[in-house]
Design goal:
Order of helices and strands: HHHHHHHHHHH
Number of helices: 11
Helix content: 55-70%
Number of strands: 0
Distance between the termini: 123 Å
Shape: globular
Amino acid sequence: MASSKQTPRRGKRAPAAGASAPAAAGNADAPAARRAQGRPPRADAESTRARLIAATRALLHASKPAGITRFDIARAAGVDPGLVRYYFGNKAAVFDEVIRAVTAELAARRQNLPTTGPVIERLRAYLGVWLEVFTDNPHFHELVVEQVFYGEGKDARERVRRFVERAYPELASLLAEGVASGELRATEPRFVYVAIIALCEFFATGTPLVEALFGRRGAARRLRAEYGAFAADLLIDGLRAGRRPGAATPR
């Protein structure tokens, strides 16, 4: 006698008692699948961190550091705001990574500068690299002032010292070489270091003023090479050997 009990079809498993039926494929109302708990794969973590840092750098082209929020960074990177806290802890830590990235680029560009030839021309190239980095990253110096120079915490002074040691010694050495070769007069190299930063930084952060003066948008980037030559001449003429400190330029 044949059994009245039907055999279930293969390939499909009956839902457990009390369980709801699965959402239909393509249903727009179905909730997105959650990420599995635990730490994400290393490659995903590095990719997300890099996206957040790149997004923050992009935001700093148009906004001051104080005006950028954790949510702005996440939105620009296309990720959940919670990932900023997950990977960095807070916004300040993201800014620290941006500072490290830009200073590393600055160091790499300085390393590619010529190490032989007239000191005056090498000094001109040195100033040009600083100007390029500042105009490529308009609010970078303001970020450094906020995070490093006036940073809080027990390591604040140590961070300032490390920042100075990254670039100042090579400039001091270059100036000393220029004095020894007779190209430059003896002067205080720390003043020259401050002057170079000031000449380059304000041209980058003062973009609205530059655009108002020259009457067109994007003037700062288009005029970068011309302004760099002007700033270098201004600096070098003041350092050139044979010029007395405080002496007026002959007309």
